[in-house]
Amino acid sequence: MDWGKVFLELWTHHRGKTVGIGIGFLFGLMVALLGFFEAVFISLCMVVGYFVGRRIDENIDFRDLIDRVFKDH
Predict the structure, then answer these.
(1) Domain limits of the chain?
(2) Distance (Å, rounded) from C-alpha 52 to C-alpha 50?
(3) Tens digits of per-residue pLDDT, 41-69?
(4) Neighbours of 46 (CB within 10 A)
């Protein structure tokens, strides 16, 4: 069996499910190795890192973002 073709087929036709299974597997592995709360903390750090990285990729100025988040109402 050619695993490359199988993965390409999954990635092409079931991308969301494939990513979801991968994320679920990694989270389960972290829970088994580190414990639930440590895994949640690491996952939250990864989500924050993703959003910061996405902002960098979109060339959004961090000062404007910080001003919007922490401006006085």
Answers:
(1) 3-70
(2) 6
(3) 999 999 988 888 887 788 777 777 777 77
(4) 13
Rg (CA), the chain: 18
Residue type, 64: D
User: Which of helix, strand or coil describes residue 51?
Assistant: helix
Q: From CA 21, how far away is CA 14, in angstroms rounded?
A: 11
Cα separations (Å) of 5 from 12, 20, 31, 50? Answer: 10, 19, 31, 29
Please state whether 72 falls in left (phi above 0), alpha (psi between -120 and 50) or beta.
beta
Contact call for residues 30 and 38 (beta carbons, < 8 A)? yes
Distance of CA 66 to the CA centre of its chain: 22
Global pTM exceeds 0.70: no
